[in-house]
């Protein structure tokens, strides 16, 4: 069984003209195994047949060594015995080495000031790749607070190119790899990356399953940088510094994405490629050295699907790479997704999935032929044009707009209301107000007298009681 890296090497060497026997001898594998993987067998699909006794304890060991990188293995072995580990001490240490569970202590292994070896880069052997985060792109780009630049540099000649991207997701990475490699003139044998998660596993350095197909499509070998080796990718790191300082700092605010990309391409060809390099035959420009590198021709782009979100304008148009494409007019102001399969000749515009609906899948509402990037073309269909005209006519009105300095005297109806107000008797409103506001207090007095049930106090001796009837005739 071959690893994913061996599988990639098999396809890369076979694309370069190696025979199956030569590949088998080079990798130390059987010819039937090499032939099976060339015929479509997938790497890394066989299940384990031996029980891994260390697997239940791997998380605990990783946590203990992460907390204390200098913990002795013998002390860790004593702890595992108490937790139920029944294997030997060498089995435990072998499992720790295989999984790479003991991290390097950076405080005890400084890289600054140490000796650096000179790394030989044969012509056409390696291309180095890296992302550059560029802050504060122009607001009208709609990319938020950060733009991204994918930089690819030939290690031998130091020739480099870059592509502006709005995301570091894998489809954008694949699109950038293809565009930069074409700008560099072809494919080298190796592609070197740092441990970016879209290419390799950051912890193990193994090629991800989703990127293995890309490497096989371009017939290149993936070379991840060793961990904690900051000088291993020095060519592209220097290109990153130049791109940030000499290109990005000078991009005008009013420039579009396509104009900024054109500025970068122009700088690379007129400034970057004329740098002088020391060669075995003397000094030569970067362009001269790069022209002599044996690069493989580019195949068709890898068919990844690139998807971005766009806001529909008031004219029912969607912008994508310097061109505009029409959609139905009822979508103006809405957010839609634009999907392009790399290498295809058309793009699809679809609605975004609605949360909570029975069918969350997006609905394709328009398909257009792709215009060249940055052409400034407007692609409309006859159906969309007719629908937009009908919507505009339905929303329009024939009423005459009001002028700011127009004479508009009171109308006949307003004068009639004014005449009614003038014929009312003088003081009528005041009399009504007074009449409605006066209260007769005698009404309240009568009501209070009728409700008075208190017993009067006793009269003094000899005083007649007015409440009793007198018997005097």
From TrEMBL:
Residues 455-464 have a biased composition (Pro residues). Residues 452-473 are annotated as: Disordered. Residues 119-293 form the Integrase catalytic domain. The keyword Nucleus does not apply. Residues 5-65 form the HTH IS21-type domain. InterPro entries: HTH_IS21_transposase_type (IPR017894), Integrase_cat-core (IPR001584), IstA-like_C (IPR054353), RNaseH_sf (IPR036397). Keywords: DNA recombination, DNA-binding, Transposition. Belongs to the transposase IS21/IS408/IS1162 family. This is DDE-type integrase/transposase/recombinase. It comes from Nostocoides veronense.
């Amino acid at each position: 069984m071959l690893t994913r890296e061996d599988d990639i090497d098999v396809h890369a060497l076979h694309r370069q003209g190696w025979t199956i026997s030569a590949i088998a001898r080079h990798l130390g594998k059987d010819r039937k195994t090499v032939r099976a993987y060339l015929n479509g067998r997938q790497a890394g699909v066989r299940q384990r047949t031996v029980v891994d006794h260390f697997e239940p304890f791997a998380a605990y060991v990783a946590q203990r060594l992460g907390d204390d990188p200098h913990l002795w293995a013998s002390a860790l072995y004593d702890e595992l015995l108490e937790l139920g580990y029944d294997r030997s001490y060498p089995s435990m240490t072998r499992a720790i080495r295989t999984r790479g569970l003991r991290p390097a202590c950076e405080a005890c292994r400084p890289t600054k000031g140490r000796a650096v070896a000179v790394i030989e880069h044969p012509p056409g052997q390696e291309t180095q790749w890296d992302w550059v985060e560029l802050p504060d792109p122009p607001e009208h780009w709609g990319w938020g607070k950060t733009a991204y630049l994918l930089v690819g540099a030939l290690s031998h000649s130091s020739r480099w190119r870059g592509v502006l991207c709005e995301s570091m997701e894998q489809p954008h990475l694949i699109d950038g790899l293809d565009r930069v490699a074409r700008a560099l003139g072809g494919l080298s044998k190796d592609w070197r990356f740092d441990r970016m998660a879209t290419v390799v596993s950051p912890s193990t350095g193994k090629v991800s399953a989703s990127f293995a197909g890309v490497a096989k499509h371009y017939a290149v070998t993936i070379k991840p940088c060793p961990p904690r080796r900051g000088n291993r990718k020095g060519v592209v790191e220097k290109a990153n510094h130049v791109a940030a300082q000499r290109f990005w700092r000078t991009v005008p605010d009013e420039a579009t994405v396509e104009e900024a990309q054109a500025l970068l391409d122009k700088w690379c060809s007129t400034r970057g490629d004329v740098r002088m390099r020391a060669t075995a035959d003397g000094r030569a420009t970067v362009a001269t050295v790069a022209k002599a590198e044996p690069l493989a021709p580019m195949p068709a782009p890898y068919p990844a699907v690139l998807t971005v979100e766009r806001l529909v304008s008031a004219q029912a148009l969607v912008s994508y790479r310097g061109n505009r494409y029409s959609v139905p007019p009822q979508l103006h102001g809405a957010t839609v997704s634009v999907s392009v399969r790399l290498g295809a000749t058309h793009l699809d515009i679809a609605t975004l999935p609605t949360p909570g609906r029975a069918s969350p899948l997006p609905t394709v509402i328009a398909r257009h032929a792709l215009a060249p990037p940055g052409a400034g073309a407007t692609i409309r269909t006859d159906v969309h044009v007719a629908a937009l005209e009908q919507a505009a006519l339905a929303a329009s009105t024939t009423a005459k707009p009001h002028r700011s300095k127009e004479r508009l005297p009171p109308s006949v109806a307003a004068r009639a209301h004014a005449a009614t107000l003038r014929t009312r008797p003088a003081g009528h409103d005041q009399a009504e107000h007074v009449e409605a506001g006066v209260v007769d207090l005698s009404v309240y007095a009568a009501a209070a007298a009728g409700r008075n049930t208190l017993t009067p106090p006793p009269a003094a001796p000899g005083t007649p009681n007015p409440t009793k009837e007198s018997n005097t005739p």
